[in-house]
Amino acid sequence: AKKQGKDQYTVFDPEMRASFQKHLEMEADLRRAVLRHEFQLRFQPIVRLRTGEISGLEALVRWLHPERGMIPPLDFIPLAEETGMIVPIGEWVLREACRQASGWNARRPADTAPLTVSVNLSAVQLERADLPDVVQSALDESGLPPHCLVIELTESLIVDHRPETLNRLHAIKALGVRLAIDDFGTGYSSLAYLRRFPVDIIKIDKSFVDDVGDVPAAAALTHGIIQLGQALQLSTIAEGIEDAEQLSELTDGNCELGQGYFFAEPLTADAMQDLLFGGQQG
Ligand code: C2E
Ligand code: CA
Ligand code: CA
Ligand code: CA
Prior knowledge:
Blueprint: H1 14-36, E1 39-48, E2 54-65, E3 69-71, H2 77-82, H3 86-107, E4 116-120, H4 123-126, H5 131-142, E5 149-154, H6 155-159, H7 163-174, E6 178-184, H8 193-196, E7 201-204, H9 206-211, H10 216-231, E8 235-238, H11 244-252, E9 257-258, H12 269-277
Parallel strand pairs: 2-4, 4-5, 5-6, 6-7, 7-8, 8-9
Antiparallel strand pairs: 1-2, 1-9, 2-3
The structure holds ligand C2E and calcium ion (3 copies).
Residues 44, 60-61, 72-74, 77, 90, 93, 120, 122, 182-183, 240-242, 259-261, 266 line the site of ligand C2E.
Protein name: Diguanylate cyclase (GGDEF)-like protein
Organism: Actinoplanes lutulentus
Domain EAL: 23-280
């Protein structure tokens, strides 16, 4: 191989040192954040497209950094996964999401179906043998019925089919919890896994929804995914609905559920409560 530049063999130039330093700092900050509970949840409504009623919520984590302000998940989840800190963070997300949803359900009129709450799960969490116990205890301590909890997994996580992973998903499923495939259509999936994995819900990735109103190929793929869901008796949720055109295309295509800025952005617990109960105190 040809030598491409004088920095080729330099292991620790000043720029790398700075970025390494920053990485260490961020890691220390994240450790402190776990101890000091610097995380918050946002809740985005999941809407029944035909009626507009709210059928559930997706819990999305945020890090409120004391100096840097609100840090979005994509800026710290990778580091949290790399360092294993996603395990305590993810466990907090799960418990807090169940607690909130259960409290809101208790205030809803008896003749309305209870809200579901969806929680994102990282592959690192699924490597832990105690995950089913953690899920069970989050349900027990919150009183949330198991069928109201949805665990969202990405395709890459599902395609990695070590037997332990599959067994653990079955164990979670056996608790009565439902499983969703997130970002459907973006991973290296074979459709075969839809039969093997105990999945209940498909979430159609935003990249399809973005173009569903104006790119015929995107519309065809979206409708194909919805029909696949119907054939397998799975619910379909369209992600990232931003305008009325996308909504009508999806509704016409018989997509059951959706979420996106067109309905609501991810909301603080207080704002979610106002949306659900019209600002009544309680
Ligand atoms: P995701 O699970 O696919 O979540 C949907 C993301 O799209 C959220 O970003 C949400 O705010 C955003 N979104 C929703 N509707 C719209 C829309 O109409 N337009 C646009 N442009 N965006 C929309 P967010 O909250 O920044 O989360 C990003 C990702 O971080 C999530 O993608 C998920 O993969 C991950 N994440 C979030 N919370 C958690 C968590 O508690 N645990 C784990 N492991 N990952 C999480
Ligand atoms: Ca998700
Ligand atoms: Ca998604
Ligand atoms: Ca459009």
